[in-house]
Specification:
binds magnesium ion; Jelly Rolls; 2 helices; globular; alpha+beta; five-stranded antiparallel sheet
Length: about 260
């Protein structure tokens, strides 16, 4: 009994030594990459734009949009009227925040109820539609990548309530007139993920299969006029830039390549 006890004590002591030694003398793994320091960004409160965002609509005017003067602006929001609008500036990889409200007065059914749309690069549509107790084809309902991918869930708020779309978009890349890398999109509707890194198959028309056509790396974003008085407010965008770093020495580089 005595020898068993002392053996147990010895094992515990040995384990403690090994653990302590491992913790104390373990060599830190280093990637060998000297990273640029991440910029300091002040986050916005209550969905306000972070400090490095570009505000595309602050509720006062649509001067950064072509056709913006055609929409009615009042009480801090803009109402879709007569034509679509598109940003004067082009954007590629981005994080886009948009708030909208479907018309309070419910008119129409299916695709005819609170229809609008957020077109990344003016080409790739995230559907905006009032699907609160209103059914339509699934790959055309609110938050769908139109005709390509239904939203994972339906998180529509009732008509008249303000809702948010947060979109993370990576633009497609083309090389020598051919698709080099498709577009990817992640969408959060009212804070809930409804598209998770979806690979787009091309553009999003109503009457044919999606297809890619080579275009620039940056193009205007547009908001669709579909004849329904959808309201928009608080629109801001951040460019997504890759993090940067350089390999500190060639040895690390060689190791990585093996
Ligand atoms: Mg639409």
């Amino acid at each position: 009994m005595r020898s068993q006890l002392s053996l147990g004590t010895a094992m515990a002591a040995l384990t403690a030594i090994v653990l302590t030694t491992t913790t104390t003398f373990a060599k830190e793994w280093l990637s060998g990459i000297k990273w640029d320091e991440p910029a300091v960004v002040t986050p916005g409160e209550n969905n306000a734009a972070p400090s490095d965002a570009k505000v595309l609509f602050d509720g006062k005017d649509l001067s950064q949009w072509e056709n913006g003067d055609r929409w009615e602006i009042k009480d801090g929001y803009a109402i879709v009227k007569g034509a679509g609008i598109r940003t004067k500036e082009g954007f590629g990889d981005c994080q886009l925040h948009v708030e909208y409200a479907s018309p309070e007065e419910v008119k129409g059914t299916g695709q005819g109820r609170g229809n609008s749309g957020i077109f990344l690069m003016g080409i790739y549509e995230v559907q905006v539609l009032d699907n609160y107790e209103n059914k339509t084809y699934f790959d055309g309902q609110c938050g769908a990548i139109y005709k390509q991918s239904p939203p994972q869930v339906n998180v529509c708020r009732p008509p008249g309530k303000w809702q948010s779309m947060d979109i993370i978009f990576h633009a497609p890349r083309f090389k020598d007139g051919k698709l080099e890398k498709p577009a990817y999109i992640t969408v959060l509707h009212n804070g809930v993920v409804i598209q998770a890194h979806f690979e787009l198959k091309g553009d999003t028309p109503f009457n044919r299969a999606p297809a890619y056509k080579p275009h620039a790396d940056k193009l205007p974003i547009s908001l669709q006029n579909h004849g329904n008085p959808v309201r928009y407010r608080n629109i801001w965008i951040r460019e997504i830039k890759p993090v940067r770093g350089v390999l500190e020495d060639k040895k690390t580089d060689e190791k990585k390549q093996k």
